[in-house]
From TrEMBL:
EC class (word): transferase
Feature: compositional bias, Low complexity: 472-481
EC number(s) per entry: 2.7.13.3
Swiss-Prot/TrEMBL catalytic activity: ATP + protein L-histidine = ADP + protein N-phospho-L-histidine
CDD domains: HATPase_UhpB-NarQ-NarX-like
Keyword Transmembrane helix: yes
Keywords of this entry: ATP-binding, Kinase, Membrane, Nucleotide-binding, Phosphoprotein, Transferase, Transmembrane, Transmembrane helix, Two-component regulatory system
Annotated TM spans: 40-61, 67-86, 93-113, 119-139, 146-164, 170-189
Residue ranges of domain Histidine kinase/HSP90-like ATPase in the record: 336-433
Domain Signal transduction histidine kinase subgroup 3 dimerisation and phosphoacceptor: 218-283
Protein name, per record: histidine kinase
């Protein structure tokens, strides 16, 4: 019993607190609406309701309840004018309207109302105004406040109805039911709006987390690929340091010990690299055994894209083609250039199937320039487009996110964007010198830019986008595969 009494007291304290402390700041309804007319709509409704109820209340009090004009005007003003606060302070408005209604009903006892002449204890305009106020209150306040308001209205109506039971004639029951229905509907709308806002906030947080996870996964994938590059250099250091005493005669003992120390450090570094790779590798993933591709595979990559239904051509400088005279391109730049071309072509296959595409790779001073430009996609129902969409099924990757990370890793620049004719352009500048290839400090992962869906945006690693044959040396633009349909020639855009 004592526990029930304590629970009852606690609930009464909570109801009293809810009735005396608004749960929201005095901001109007629809204050966050995007359009101005939506923000002004609550004020228009409040003015219309007040302007309509004020003269009606005055007329009803003077004609149906025989209240003198001055007193009727005062009662009508007390019961109607506080409704102007409905849009921004509904609870405070209720604290003015409810006592005014009770006081007005007590005043009407001086001129008893006969059954059938007028309703009791609330005049009809007061009931209508109260229902509007309760609806506005339900849209703003907590559930406990609504329960307290409904209980106060029901108790006051039942109590006043006992003074003239023959005149109430079911009005109390109707008022109690209508007020409860209005509060339930308004509360349901408020809770639904809050649930939608929370859902939007959660989706925003989830989108940011998803973008962060995508970026981190792409960086991990790039780190796994660069492991082979670093491991190759470390292996060369180990071999050269171990073989130096045998290749160079007459080395002093100090130099021999130094070479042995270098070889030992290189082997330890390789061991640590393998441990790092084990950490970066996903659970259950197997290590790649094939060597990492580079510019020597670009020709074969373009040929695979042609087989996927995309008319593509490659323009590669003769000095970059595979062969004994090929200049030394850093392995990280070599791999990044190949991956950028691969992802750009895969995006064309998926998002612009059948579009005429041109790939250009050339060296300019101390930079390697990679340019992939595609024209607008042909009609969706064309045979080329349908074939390309079939080839593109199942392609997955991170598209522009991976390109940006690879370019940032090598200290280069990336320029992507749509073309005026509806195509898309990907231009990367990768430094060929070690001094210029220092990447910036890793930044905080951010949400990736929304990718263009009409051109080379979306995913990489399209089916058939890899191979083993070496690319041919093509100092001049060379078309691979069947001739594309008639289309304006896509020229190289300005360097990024």
């Amino acid at each position: 019993m004592e526990g029930l009494i304590r629970a009852g007291r606690r609930n009464l304290r909570e109801l009293r607190h809810a009735l005396t402390h608004p749960s929201h700041p005095p901001t109007p309804l629809l204050a966050d609406a995007p359009r101005r007319w939506q923000r002004l709509l609550p004020y228009a409704v409040v003015l219309a309701v007040t302007a309509a109820l004020l003269p009606v209340s005055l007329t009803v009090l003077t004609q149906d309840y025989d209240v003198p004009g001055g007193v009727a005007s005062a009662l009508a003003a007390l019961q109607v004018l506080p409704l102007l606060m409905m849009a921004h302070r509904p609870l405070q408005a209720w604290w003015l309207v409810f006592p005014s209604g009770v006081a007005g009903s007590l005043f009407l006892l001086r001129a008893p109302v006969e059954a059938g002449d007028a309703i009791w204890p609330w005049p009809a305009p007061a009931i209508v105004g109260m229902l509007f106020l309760l609806f506005a209150l339900a849209l703003r306040e907590r559930r406990k406040a609504l329960i307290g308001v409904w209980l106060c209205t029901a108790v006051a109506g039942i109590t006043l109805g006992q003074f003239l039971p023959e005149a109430s004639d079911g009005t109390n029951v109707l008022t109690i039911v209508l007020s409860g229905v209005v509060l339930v509907i308004g509360g349901a709308l408020r809770e639904r709006g809050e649930a939608q806002r929370r859902l939007v906030e959660q989706e925003t947080i989830s989108e940011a987390e998803r973008a962060r996870r995508t970026l981190l996964e792409e960086r991990t994938r790039i780190a796994r690929e660069l492991h082979d590059v670093v491991a190759h250099h470390m292996s060369m250091i180990t071999v050269q340091a171990d073989s130096a005493p045998y290749r160079i005669s007459g080395l002093p003992a100090e130099a021999t010990e130094e070479f042995a120390s270098i070889a030992s450090s290189a082997r330890e570094s390789l061991t640590e690299m393998r441990r790092l790779l084990a950490v970066l590798r996903s659970e259950g993933a197997q290590g790649e055994r094939a060597p990492q591709p580079g510019l020597g595979k670009v020709q074969q990559l373009v040929e695979a894209t042609v087989r996927a239904g995309v008319p593509a051509e490659l323009s590669m400088a003769a000095e970059l083609a595979p062969g004994p005279g090929r200049p030394a391109v850093p392995q990280a730049v070599d791999l990044s250039a190949y991956r950028i071309v691969q992802e750009a072509l895969a995006n064309v296959v998926r998002h612009a199937p059948g579009a005429v595409t041109r790939v250009s790779v050339r060296a300019e001073e101390k930079d390697l320039l990679v340019l992939v430009v595609n024209g607008p996609a042909p009609e969706p129902d064309s045979p080329t487009s349908r074939a390309a969409r079939v080839e593109a099924k199942g392609a997955g990757g991170h598209g522009l996110v991976g390109m940006r990370e690879r370019v940032r890793l090598t200290g280069g620049t990336l320029d992507t964007g749509p073309l005026p004719d509806g195509g898309f352009r990907v231009a990367a500048r990768l430094p060929l010198t070690a001094e210029a290839a220092t990447p910036p400090a890793p930044d905080t992962p951010a949400a990736p830019a929304r990718e263009h869906t009409a051109g080379t945006s979306g995913t990489a690693d399209a089916p058939g986008a890899s191979g083993t044959a070496d690319a041919r040396s093509t100092p001049t633009p060379r078309r691979t595969g069947p001739a594309p349909p008639q289309h304006p020639t896509v020229k190289d855009s300005p360097d990024p």
